[in-house]
Amino acid sequence: MAGDFDPSLDFLTAPALAGLSATLGSIPGLTEAEARLICQSTAEALEETVRLKVNRVLLLELNAARISGRLTGETPQLRWQEWKATAATPEFWLSLTGHYPTMLSRLGTIIDNRCAAAVELARRFAADRAALTTLPGGLRGELVGVDFGAGDSHRGGHSVVVLHGSQGKVVYKPRSLAVDEALARLIDRLAPQLPAGSRIRVPDVLIRQGYGWAEHIQHTYCADETELRSFYRGVGHWLALMRLIGGSDLHMENLIAAGPAPVVVDCETLFTPHVPAKPSGYGDAVDQATDLLSGSVLRTGLLPGRGVSLAWRGVDMSAVGGLPGQQPYTQVPVVVDAGTDMARLGMERVELGAVSNHPSPDPILVHYWDLVLSGFTELAEHLDMLDRRGELAGLLTDFADRPIRVVLRATEAYAELARMLWHPASLHDEPTAMGKAAGLLAQHAENLPGAPSDPEVIDAEVAELLVGDIPFFATTPARGRLDGPGGTSYGDEQDLIADALRRWRDRDAALDREVIRSALVSAYLNEGWMPANKRMTVPLIQHQDLERRRRRIAAGIARSMLDTAVRGDDGTVTWTAPVLTSDGWFVQSLSPDVYGGAYGVAITLAAYVSETGQGRADEVPGLDGLLADLLHTIRLAEERDAEARRTGPRRRPATPGGYVGIGSQIWSWLLLRRLGTVGSEEAVAQAGALAGQLPEAVAADGVYDLLTGMAGAIVPLLRLSEQTGDQQWSVQADRIGERLLSLAHIDDRGARWPSTAFPQGLGGVSHGATGIAWALARLADSATAGAADFRALADRAFLYEESLYDPAEKGWRDLREMDDHRVTSSAWCHGAAGIGLVAADRLAREGAPRWADVLRRAAASSWSRGIGWNHTLCHGDLGTWEIVRHAIDVGVGPEELTPEYLAAYVIGSMDEHGPVSGLSRDAFSPGLMPGVGGMLYQLLRLHPDTSLPSVLLPDPEN
User: Fold this and answer.
1) CB 279: neighbour CB atoms within 10 A?
2) What pLDDT was estimated at residue 822?
3) Binding residue positions
4) Which entry of 350, 359, 456, 472 is 20 to 30 Å from 654 by CA?
5) What InterPro entries does this protein map onto (predicted)?
6) Is 549 part of a structural domain of the chain?
7) What is the domain extent for residue 34?
8) Which residues on adjacent β-strands are paired with residue 154?
9) Binding site for Zn(2+): residue ranges?
10) Can you give the pTM of this predicted structure?
11) DSSP helix/strand/coil, 439
């Protein structure tokens, strides 16, 4: 983070480095050049470590010197040089002790520990260098490079180091590698049963007492399709094996693609104890779902999944995920105006760099995900066969006394606390900062199963963080009780091998397979990603028995939703599924929203129960009870959240969006009222309570769009105002409109709304100009005081959308595809279907011919390009059906296409292929927009007499 901010640290590091140099020079077996190299590499790593710790203090001191007038140079650059000279003196550093009493002593500990670790490395290298040649590609000849910091620092400044020889490389690990050896042996014993070409492995190791040397694995892309298929089948094998032996924390840096071989290079976290989920307050069903998923193959860390911690929110750190172009930009601290006396800390938006876990430059996971699943299944079945023969337990006994690590808290959580402990305010008052850190860890333990709550252990964790180390917990599978930082112990004695074997035998194999299918979705950032598979075809469009077939398919979907529900003893219910949140896709219990969450499912079930009562759908026994339980679960969650806001610590506000967020919850209650599922009094009371949270949510919003942003709350607020007669909600909608006025970027192309994720702005309904413009146009329709301004801005945004239309491609460009501005989308979320639906809405309200033209082009694009991929509302046939039907009804539909043919096509496709979800075709999702819930809802709307409103705009009266 320093940039040109480089005041001298010699006062801190020079004495220790001088001692290190002398010690290294005296080690037998090291050449003079090697000793210098190790010393220089240590100095460089130490400089970076110390600078990251003290930069904020130094910036504060520089600022104090500037504003107090102590700097007399004529320019900012000269004043910087003046201060820099002062900061290089012992007097400067000693003067800091009064304000930061423990800073120098803590820095001294870090420096001494890192130097001692370097000496230990050097001695071990000198003693073992002859043996290192026995490792594949092992180090030979003179030592020519030393890379410190290949991993986190633990237990007194020790970390993984990569050593380069004049020939070859080797990896030094300051821990026992006995577990690596045991895993290699287990793979060797299983290898004859794996398909030809499967090459899962771990690096060869050289074991020493308390440390070891590992083969350096060179990242290599696969040479051809055969190797790619072998790689992904191997990933499936790793999933099965790690599921058996309790592997966890297998993130992207722990797996390297070596051609067709996925190599796990850090396998210390095996036989991880499983701790049941703690009661969440959201009901037994939610807790059951959480426990099921946390005990499934998902916990290995291999499968795609998004982070939730502050610094890594939305980042996919998994071994198989982390795809290029599918990571959010992150904010990192930088020094702004370095080299001047105005230097200060700022944040810079950066893209995460590539790592070595992928077998090709641009992985297309969807092409190979069936191989991941089949690889998992074939090895799991083989392991089950070994267990039936009584051989499986014997294969695991070799692990019993081999040291393993247990990760009780995410490294990112520790890193955030460490950063806090090195803040100038914390350095000024260390006891208070330590108490705050301990309190946060204790609070963390209340929410995270297995995290230490023992005050003695927590104090030891904080002590480690004070001196730059990540706390480390270790045990052996036979013992189970953990050795923690500072000589502490934690947990019970237990046989972790027996526990892993029991969990393997008791596992829900179908759930594991479903989790693998579903997790593919988490590798992708956006809801509109579409797999590059072949389209579904309907060989023969049959018009006979359409009503009977419609009812049969709808009832089948309803039964599947009933059968897949997770039911709690307390009357709560949920589902496990891929769920879209503001941070990305997660495999979890349903979230509280319309898009793929509980509210959307409630709307679907309510619609089915209502249509059944009208004789337009076949009765599905138990569905009304399922709806009642889901409403109970939703009410419980809202009560729990309200109580937490009243009495708990301040939370990050929910998003305000119309499909993911508070806006979606508001219009859900209003629509459930319209469907007769809840009474008017409850609906408006619940919606009003939710609307009260919007000001804080809008203030925190940084995306502004219809899906998750503030624009999505405008129409729900207007409808709430209409139904209650309470003008405070329309006033709140006006304020959102005014904020959108201030945030718009307007030029000769029109208006758009840049965001952190998409600084160029986007088109389309869900995240782009059309969705925001629709909300502003509806706000203008409501005759508010700012109507003229809102309408003018809406028109400018519609103009911008029109600038994205590509006549040659006959569609609207999808600006998410930064590498190819010719890419167009026909889906609801980012393309023609959504644009057309807004056009249909505006045509009905304004009657202007321009909207008929937009609707015509949108329907044509949707029908030609958006059909046949899947059946979802968001980016599939049932979303396309609605836009094309609108176009047909007003005479601008695709040529010779009739409502009857359109219905026959949709029903025929579902007859032929079954209900197909979008992002991972075989994964089950009950959700409204990405799953079978929306398919069911639209099938109900296919009946000519239904009054069910559209859900493709966030308006319960649409």
Assistant:
1) 10
2) 60
3) 829, 874-875
4) 350
5) 6hp_glycosidase-like_sf, LANC-like, Lant_dehyd, Lanti_2_LanM
6) no
7) 1-148
8) 158
9) 829, 874-875
10) 0.91
11) helix
